[in-house]
Amino acid sequence: MMEITTVHYTVLSAALFSIGVIGVLVRRNIIIIFMAIELMLNAVNINLVAHAHRLENLVGEVFVVFVIAVAAAEAAVGLGIILAFFRNKETVNIDEMNVMRW
Amino acid sequence: MAETIGFYTLSVLILGLAVLVVTAKNTVHSILFLVMNFLCVAVLYVVLQAEFLAVIQVLVYAGGIVVLYLIVVMLVNLKGEAEAHQDPRRLSVIGLALAGAVLLELAGILVYSSGSDAAVPSSEAVASPVQGNVEELGWLLYTDYLIPFEVASVLLLVAMIGAILLARREV
Amino acid sequence: MIDTIVIPLLKIAVLVNGVLVAVTFTVLMERKVIAWAQSRLGPMRVGPYGILQAIVDPIKLILKEDITPAKADKWMFTLAPILSLVPALVVFAVVPFGGDELFYVTDINVGLLFIIAVTSIGVYGIILAGWASNSKYPLLASLRASAQLISYEIAVTMTLVSVILTAGTLSMIGIVEAQQEAGFWFFFVQPVAFVLVLIGGLAETNRAPFDMPEAEQELTGGFHTEYSGMRFSMFFLAEYANMLVISAVVVVLFWGGWLRPFPNVAALSFLDFIPSWVWFFGKMFGFLYLFIWIRATLPRYRYDQLMRLGWKILIPIAIGNIVVTAVVKVLL
């Protein structure tokens, strides 16, 4: 087997990102869609860390910290929206989220 | 050799668990697969010598964010019928095709740029007076990236207030 | 080869078995101490003063029938106890039980964060147990547990930041060595943090007075209502192993780990004949006793009181403590 290079990590990251994209585009349960977005953020993080390792420069890891902060903020607000929506319409299916106000 | 085996095992686990997250029928199962996925990614960070991020990944993602998902799923308490209704105008095939296009595009970029991988530019060594992963990361965050760091904390504060306002019942 | 694989594996085996044996005796100790607190005798039949009860109890639990409810989610129902026990055992890997290299498995540069992170995984065991049982009391318990554990995890982590500031390192060994250099245990400079960690630790291990997730009188047994036999005893083991974890962490962070009192005072050097691990286990024993004593003394909190204590009292104090510690550290 050959040596593991940054390209391997990048390929892994791209595949994970694509799985996340598929999840967002195909699933209709909004909670699963949120989780697919988390997968995509993780794919980006793997990429950043792998390149930080290759360049021996920690700037990539600093950005991962920011990505994690953004992911936390996104989860908090997104789940708040889901709860508010569920309270009004008793569903988490995005196909039924077709009105801007009620 | 050990690194090669470790990398392929982890990759298979990460991708397999990601597929399970996206395909699982039961939302709680999906969340559990997501936790395992994050743990595997944390191990990958350890392999890449980013110990601090590995721990933060477990602490923030697995121990914090995903627990939030779990609480929300239990509050809305759905079992299976979440996707009963489908919008007739929705075309999942096009979604799959678009995702395939994204994958192809990423692969194209990789193939195009993989030749330049060998030429590692000599990184401008950031003159940090400290040693160790955690210390250097902290040094960077509080010197060069102080303003982004503060912006991130303000973002978290705004998100916190927003979440409380959204989730609060009307009085 | 021997140094990197065999010896660590041996240490891990000894550690895991040691923790499990210690847990059975902690259970016995709890029964005895609570009995004495209530003017009873406690277990007396098996062995002298009931000492063998510690061995008989686990055997009884293992031999009991292991029932899975018909409507339960089978996989999750089996996975949940494992998920709550494994993290409790894993964190012992970075706890230094003595000054010698023999007494710890490994020392990593993010030791304290590792402990916080791994214990936060233990939450899943309780939440999933409640969900997988497919029964209303366990579900209520797991909702309570998730909210409680997340709230107190924030308070504890915030508090630990001030300890990290004082020690200047995240390594567990480094923290003890920092106390040796400073010449005093961190309890004397961080008493507020010590009290906060103790309260938060009680809440995170679901111990009385914060045992909301299993409150027998309200929820018939909480998240483990539907569990029996071996799987129930794994929850049991996890709870007591977590007690051991919290006492070990408190000893390392605030009570000097394996150090004798005032390690720099020469007048006390006659204490040096006591080996380091005796100090460590002695202090741990003291904290286990304190936990049991608190359980025997205090009534259970109400849920809203619990939340108010966590969010409106502990977290603000913890943040204030960080600010004060940082200012003092910069000024000195």
From TrEMBL, chain B:
InterPro entries attached to this UniProt entry: NADH_UbQ/plastoQ_OxRdtase_su6, Nuo/plastoQ_OxRdtase_6_NuoJ
Iron among keywords: no
TM region positions: 6-24, 31-48, 54-78, 90-112, 145-167
GO molecular function: NADH dehydrogenase (ubiquinone) activity
Keywords per UniProt: Membrane, Transmembrane, Transmembrane helix
A family per Pfam: Oxidored_q3
Protein name per UniProt: NADH-quinone oxidoreductase subunit J
Organism, as annotated: marine metagenome
